[in-house]
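Handoff note, outgoing to incoming analyst
You'll be picking up this chain. Sequence as last confirmed:
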Amino acid sequence: MHILIFSWRDINHPYGGGAELLSHEMSKRWVAQGHPVTHFSASFPGSKSNELIDGVRYLRAGDWYNVHILAFLKILVGQFGNFDVLIDEVHGIPFFSSLYTRKPIVCLACEVAKEVWDQMYPFPLNIVGKICEKVYLHLYKNIKFLTISESTAEDLIQNGILEKNITVLPMGLTYTLPQKLPGKIKHPSMIFLGRLARSKGIADAIKAFSIIQEKIPLAKMRIVGKGAPEYETRLKNLVSRLKLKNSLKFIGFASEPEKFKLLSQAHLILVPSVREGWGLVVPEANLVGTPAIVYNVPGLRDVTKDGVNGQVVTKNTPQGLAQASIKLLLNPVRYQKMSQSSKEYAKSMNWDDTARVALKVLQESL
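Most recent structure output, in case you need it:
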């Protein structure tokens, strides 16, 4: 079975995240089982137009704003060969492949964007995005869906997708831990890890830390990740206004080994996103014994098990985030127990199960 994947980014894209990792981990396992995989996505500075990674054929062209049109044109002229099934990945909008191919289609939707459109785009682009999302969900109502959380499955059902056509994938975890990891730093410390964008709620994390520091004056915080320069400037101005410059540090981009070192030093990871497909940073932090304090939103409420690997706050506010953090930090016995159960939770995840369940859906679609 030749599998074709359309996605706006790939595993090597500088802004790639959990969705791209999910695609690659499944794809390389399918290839190992004898199913060729071709992945088409946007190019990026320094990228190759044709590249083989772990046996997966990666083709790239265009950019985020025209990759959907290029996919249509290339499939029209037969550039992707005689594929058997197409995975149409949704990032806000899909590739609308149901309008131009008769081959079986399986839609991979990590989330239904909803209010993320308001966080990421100004008026009227946010309205256009919401309309496009409604349109595609109507067009795809009879297509099989793969998703990564029960919350997203519920969102899809509410938007007209039949429950029988939705499969929730068990998620895996990719990691290579450094041979020697540092322990927790002396004083209570928080970390934020991820792309610096409004939808990730970083401003709320900073405000929460300000409240935490009022109760725990020696507390520290690190923000790890990159974003648009103008937004980073706004965040740094917020830190200055809250007088946190001596206790909060912007780290910027961190390599994989450095990322896990920073996570292992932190006591808690704060994750106040508007919504997530799943929330990869939570189990990544859990791997090194760092519980997560998260907002009660789709994706995060699925990946965070209260009292096991973190806590889902009762109110999605900086105050709610801070109160949950303070309560856990001031209870050393409860914290140590949760730190250990976090490690066990993360290490139980397996990409082999993810690939197996998804492949069954692809085969059923033929």
